[in-house]
Design a protein that fits this description.
four-stranded antiparallel beta sheet; about 25% helix; about 200 residues; three-stranded antiparallel beta sheet
């Protein structure tokens, strides 16, 4: 896998690594068991799966925050996480990181690092290709504040092709299953990702 450094943290383009940027700290709450396969089928039907196009589409319309994500319930938090993965996929396809930035808290270093890596590829005339990320499990960690829930998320990262800059050779990455933890917070009347951890 190709790694790009942003300062000292280590970041995979579009995919965080546990060994640097986000770390696997013991202070995080123990994750709740993820849903069973029958539960996962329900989640996966609601996640985005973008097509593998030949060229990037910067003018592509970004995902719209669904009404289901505007409340403060656990279901609303889940809907927001699905939306967040959607804006990650939009950024990967187009290089447009603005929706991703708006859905992320300014203090979320991991969110910023992913956005900067994606932006850097497209700014140099490169591109990213693939079918994006797909949620196949999503569960709230128990006994967390309603306005600051922690969402344990199983995400399948599809194989990806990358050209880091104009004229560079294309690289290919296998992808795979990842366990992501999204720490949410309320900013006014909307959710934001306050912190984002990943374990491969």
């Amino acid at each position: 896998m190709a790694l790009k450094r942003v300062g000292t943290p280590v970041v995979l383009t579009g995919v965080l690594l546990c060994t640097g940027l986000v770390g696997c700290t013991e202070e995080n709450p123990s994750p709740a068991p993820l849903p069973t396969q029958s539960d996962q089928s329900t989640e996966s039907t609601q996640s985005s799966s973008p097509s593998d196009t030949a060229t990037p589409s910067p003018s592509e319309t970004p995902p719209v925050l669904p009404a289901a994500a505007r409340g403060t319930s656990e279901n609303a938090a889940k809907a927001f996480v699905r939306y967040y993965i959607g804006v990650v996929n939009h950024a990967l396809r187009t290089g447009n990181i603005r929706p991703l930035q708006r859905a992320s808290a300014s203090a979320c270093d991991s969110c910023a690092a992913v956005a900067e890596n994606i932006e850097g590829v497209y700014a140099e005339g490169g591109y990213l290709r693939g079918n994006g990320w797909r949620i196949n499990a999503l569960k709230a960690v128990a006994e967390q504040p309603a306005r600051r829930p922690i969402m344990q998320t199983g995400v399948f990262v599809n194989p990806q092709r990358k050209v880091a800059r104009e004229g560079a050779e294309e690289e290919r990455f296998d992808g795979g299953q990842n366990l992501m933890t999204f720490f949410l917070d309320r900013r006014g009347s909307e959710w934001v990702v306050q912190k984002w951890d990943q374990v491969q």
